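User: Hey, quick favor. My workstation is busy. Could you predict this chain's structure for me?
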Amino acid sequence: MDSKPKTAQPNEGEGNRTAAREYNKDTRKFTESGQVEAKAREAQRAVDGPEAQELKRAEAEGRRHSHGEDPALKK
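Assistant: No problem, here it is.
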């Protein structure tokens, strides 16, 4: 008997096409929804508003767990 748990979606490894397809579909749906400008303004208010400190703390926490920038981005 196989002791590995069965999952609804098999592991596709790096370059998961199913996840990429879902992301692209959802991104397209959002951009076509007409909400992009409103969400951009909402994000700008958050960055400039009272929750700015909380956002900066969250970013700093994320950076502490990061392995740094991808050197390929600086080419």
